[in-house]
Amino acid sequence: MKIMVVGGGGREHTIIKKLKENKEITEIFALPGNGGIAADATCVDIGAKDIAAIVEFAKEKGIDFAVVAPDDPLVLGAVDALSDAGIPCFGPSKAAAEIEGSKVFSKNLMKKYGIPTAEYEVFTEMDAALEYLKTAPIPTVIKADGLALGKGVIIAETRDAAYDAVKSMMEDKVFGASGSRIVIEEFLTGPEVSVLSFTDGKSIVPMVSSMDHKRALDGDCGLNTGGMGTIAPNPYYTDDIAKECMEKIFLPTINAMNAEGRKFKGCLYFGLMLTPNGPKVIEYNCRFGDPETQVVLPLLETDLLTIMKAVESETLADLDIKFSKGAAACVVMASKGYPEHYEKGFEITVDETCEAEVFVAGAVLRDGKLLTSGGRVLGVVATADNLENALTKAYKEVEKVHFDNAFYRHDIGKRALDALK
Ligand code: AMP
Ligand code: GLY
Prior knowledge:
Elements: E1 2-7, H1 10-19, E2 27-32, E3 42-43, H2 51-61, E4 65-68, H3 71-76, H4 78-84, E5 89-90, H5 94-101, H6 103-112, E6 120-123, H7 126-133, E7 140-144, E8 153-156, H8 159-170, E9 182-186, E10 192-199, E11 204-206, E12 211-212, E13 215-217, E14 221-224, E15 229-232, H9 239-259, E16 266-275, E17 278-285, H10 293-296, H11 304-312, E18 327-335, E19 349-350, E20 357-360, E21 363-366, E22 369-372, E23 376-384, H12 387-398, E24 401-402, E25 406-407, H13 414-420
Parallel strand pairs: 1-2, 1-4, 2-3, 4-5
Antiparallel strand pairs: 6-9, 7-8, 7-9, 10-11, 10-16, 12-15, 13-14, 15-18, 16-17, 18-23, 18-25, 19-24, 20-23, 21-22
């Protein structure tokens, strides 16, 4: 059986390694993949957004099943195009991917169907937004409508910062067309939880919960990044909260998407905040999270391809999906300077004694050597019977991975451990 995975980061490396546990799979192609993924799949030099080339490749190779992992191709309609060409696919349609592709769409959906989220207003005119901000509660949160590489959210601590944020999005277009419509929303507080779920539009199976660490530096200091580390499960996400989320958020979201004629099939990611007034949705993603996937999938005990096929054929309810009772930790190694300017091209080496999984995000192969090519270079992932042991192991093993100018956070999971005590 031939599988194709669209994407080329640490998330895709993790998905590919998990898929490989299925022995019916004879070959996996990654489009475009990366230098680390090349050890586990055949990398093909086709960009994740080049939908015509992706479909052409899939037909030519006789791909039996495709997985589209990143947001961009999903929002552009890669799954629709592959399905039209007769290739079974894991991932939402373009219409369903709108749940991530447009913040205005997702906020209006939540309002219409009574799904708890921050209060908000939508603006298409800068003057109206600036006028609104004169009396809005501060801090306030300003979001560009469309995809902005995960950077389209500004938390303004002062009124002046809020004015500047609106101007940067609507006048200076720092996020391009994504900023021509904006959402200004209520600032919420509380622990954040990521819940990825499998859904075929009929039933929904939440995966083990996780926690991301978005800031670049220890103590949650520094700039926002694509994620510097993750742990699973998230200790703040108790069984009672899980039950409440299922009733008030997960099922209502699936029902809302069906009612809108946008049945969601794939991985639906709920970014939640556990506020003093209950769990609220901060964001939806139409895909696996990165680097959440790096800690969630290693704990999955059920065959991933079987689940993905059941989602595609809308038979998810027939499966009994199991996660291990243990825990996982991921420490991301990045290049000094990330998320701003950083250098590339340093050789990556991993000691033979390394017992952790190394999921590669930003690296290329040159003359048999693995060289850094991105800001977030790789994630070192350990699993164990509990979170403390998983973290101890991840931090021991990270010492066995080397490249010049590497840095990582030393406090991944610290807050979670404190919460457990
Ligand atoms: P997003 O790209 O929507 O995930 O937002 C990035 C981060 O901004 C989230 O992970 C939160 O930490 C923060 N954030 C987003 N919306 C809010 C909000 N309404 N209140 C407080 N923090 C928020
Ligand atoms: N880790 C957050 C995301 O994947 O968007």
